[in-house]
Amino acid sequence: MWNVEEFMRAATVTVDGLATYVDESQRGLPPVLRRRPPRELAERLGLARWIREGGMTPDSYADFLAAYLDEGTRLHHPAYLGHQVAAPDFPAALADFVHGAANNPMAIYEMGASAATVEFGVLRWMLDKVGFGETGGGVLTHGGSLANLTALLAARAAAAPEAWTEGVPADLALLAPASSHYSLTRAAAILGLGERAVMPLDVDELGRIDVARLPEALERVRRAGRRPMALVANACSTGTGLYDDLRGVGEFCAASGVWFHVDGAHGASALLVEEHRHLLDGIELADSLIWDAHKMLRTSSLAAAVLTKREGDLDAAFQQRASYLFYGDQGFDLIGRTVECSKAELGLKIFLNLAWRGERGLGDYVARQYATAHRFWELAQERPGFECPYEPESNIVCFRYGTADQAVIREDLMADGAFHLTSTEVGGVRHLRITVMAPATDDKTLEQLLDLIGERGGPRADRPYPPRDVLG
Prior knowledge:
alpha/beta, Aspartate Aminotransferase, domain 2, Aspartate Aminotransferase, domain 1, 3 domains, seven-stranded mixed beta sheet, five-stranded mixed beta sheet, 43% helix, globular
């Protein structure tokens, strides 16, 4: 049994350590990340000893926790401009703490009635925001990749109801722009369609779907002897943060009888902002949609919603038999809608953020991050040597500096933990990429980044990638 007194001491150590960690991170005091090699890091953390001998106490745990946090990546840091992962708000962190102790895997209602009911409430809120109303269905999953897979399972069930028992017909196709998240191609392979069944849509120079050429794309699919299982649009694209024309795509799909899936993992949260809601005009035309809370709704990883316009479509995604689980009335169980059997209390993270901040508070966060990204674009435009291929529509900005190897510039910035940013290709050309996630990122941070790139992105960045003096 738990030693409750020891737990309380260790919990106090945890809260104190995390409070210091977040406070220092938000003030930008330590490096945003460290890149110590795994062998050295394992030695610092004493992994071999603790695994072999055990015996950790609240006091020794405090030392371990301090080292563990110090070596991690600080998502609350103003210089964190890397991947699309939230700097989680503390209510979501409380939810993780509660789940860690209570451990109610609530896909089966009897294993967590309160957790399941909270998830129902959160999903109903999301369905209403999207415009699916009372007829829609939803479920939360552990991440956007699982969410996309689940949505496409529903699309497959609609196109080929016999696929679950008889196997996947060889003529199904998935239509998607090349700018789509890699999880779409992965899902096609897992579903049994194969990568070759993913047929590219015509796009503009920035990777957005060319709605006028959708009839041509559909004709190509049919000439190839295939039938479309689903067509995917981005809201927004992972690489550029740009939105597809959802209304144009949705109206085409409705007229053509094609399942319309929207990957809104990152950008669907703009529904909470009056000035940005137009970016999602037409989202109510989708047959399915995913929306990640662990991106712009500031929950910890992972919490992603799968939403369908018709509840029955989601229920058709899976067919399962297990006499120890499925018997009697399953009306309140979510297990029939997910890959996962043991599913964490994901709804609690979203609910507590809503309960603390309100819908308006979460919307204000989204608006601020979008505005900060736009401010970076404005500042970069004023600097010689910087070029941006488009005006940002979200909190993601792609840019280049000079003619040097952009990957080398990135590695140089990350080597000493000065900044964490990413890189992608736009129009086949390598660009630097920032994603404004941390609330602490401000104009001062942006100016510092531009200054540093200007200083480090000169002749020394013309060396081949990777530079030995940076990566060892």
